Sequence to fold (296 residues):
Amino acid sequence: MTPICLVTGFLGTGKTTLLKNIVARHRGRRLVYLVNEFSAMDVDGALLLGEGADTVSIPGGSIFCKCLVSQFIDRLGEIPAKHPGVEGVVIEASGVADPAVVRKMLAETGLDKLYQLRSVLSVADPKSLYKLLKTLPNIRSQLAASDRALVNKCDLCSEDEIRRAEDQIREINPAVALFRTVRCEVDFDIFSPGAPTGGVDGEYGLCRDPNFAKISVELGETGFEDFQRLLAPALQDVFRVKGFALVGGEPSLVDYSEAGWDVRPGAGGELGRLAMIVSGAAEVRLRERLGKLAEG
Fold:
């Protein structure tokens, strides 16, 4: 059977960096990367394609919710025929996904005859984990379902922050193996089975999670600096901004998370279009604020 490695973790913790590392380390293996974006824009899929990865993208929600699970099942079922000789599948679930239903889904659809879930990796940022666990139940489910957890961005955190994050993760999942990482650098085989956990058992999620809302922003070829300035007073309600924009006259990958803004030269998607994931309670206020961009 084809092994699966499922990668989870909240928005901005480093999942895309982890996948890029996996692509670089396994160029000689026939791996397929199934990338799930909560937003309608396929930013991560475009980035992995740019790295030469064999990529299947499912944007527009969570692959474990009722709205997208049929599409996810279809795409997973098509992989052996469309990608002959595949040696493994790496699934990047969206940052808001609750992966607890994955084993049930494979069994109910008969895909457990084709695939074996070998490992579930979660990625956590010590600086944001405490706050997220207090407000977003899916983060707890992601950690409970994991056999390995990467405590990432350790170069940006104090020892106390790292230890508190490790204690929180162990409280949720005592069996999980913890790895302190910088830019998600790991040296273990992602398809080797980890310690068994009891957290991978649940139900399909709702189509609309009231904790989150999606907003698409059309900047055209200019306007990023105005967008950034307009958004600054409301960043407490913003979980993620991601996409490609013209910054200082140069095509750039734009990425905002709890860690702050990361703007670096790069291309790979539609220039001037950004995807936002925000607090569901703040969606109307943020849309009104962003409407001022169109007013000039």
Observations:
- The chain has a mean pLDDT of 85.
- The longest helix spans residues 69-82.
